[in-house]
Amino acid sequence: MSGASTPAPGRLETVRRFVNTLDIDAGTDALTSPGALVAWLGATDLLSGDNHGAGRDDLARAVAVREALRQTLAANHGGDPIPAAALAVLNDAAGRARLTATLTARDGWRPRPAADGVDGALGGLLALVGDAMADGTWPRLKVCVNDTCQWAFYDESRARSGKWCSMQVCGNRAKQRAWRGRRAESTP
Ligand SMILES: [Zn+2]
Predict the structure, then answer these.
(1) How many other CB atoms sit within 10 Å of the CB of residue 165?
(2) 86 Cα–ligand 1 center, Å
(3) Which of 22, 43, 64, 134 has its CA 20 to 30 A from that of 31?
């Protein structure tokens, strides 16, 4: 789903956009080469230092972090624990970024990356996740439950019960499938 869905508040939107660099529904991926990865990160304020080179291994790690974040956002639907494989990928990325508890002027202790380059930029994304966990916005960032979509969206519903990136697109698709299923069941 590449249509409009609600942006996340503040800098958490960067995490949502990162997960959505893969558009499963459209079959497009913005992170197809190390150069494309550096360009994407460079368009955010995540890339610091002079070490902006990236290789195939950097790209593979970035894609692994993206998909681990997607699994983590899927777990936000039921308040489920983060799957072990995703946890391992994210903790490895945090280690490479040398994510360090840093006392901030207004927001208490927050994770901040000490590494630069792509590792540091991925750590910056994980720091944004930590900030969102601290300010309470994190549980509302989810991926669409439609398996052929999985688009990251911010759930603004009062009950925090949103399932789809868009009620008009994936919500309706699910309703139509349920309707066809019931009709098939009622056919003798
Ligand atoms: Zn969707």
Answers:
(1) 28
(2) 21
(3) 134
Q: Is residue 115 within 8 Å of residue 98, measured between CB atoms?
A: yes
The pTM of the full predicted model, rounded to 2 decimals, is: 0.91
CA of 36 to the centre of ligand 1 (A): 25
For the chain, domains (ranges, CATH) are 12-186 (1.10.3300)
> Across the chain, which distance is largest between two alpha carbons, in Å?
69
φ/ψ of 157, rounded to 5, equals -65, 145
Rounded to an integer, what is the distance from CA 118 to the centroid of its chain? 17
User: Nearest 5°: CA angle at 56, between 50 and 62?
Assistant: 75
Contact 115, 97 (CB under 8 A): yes
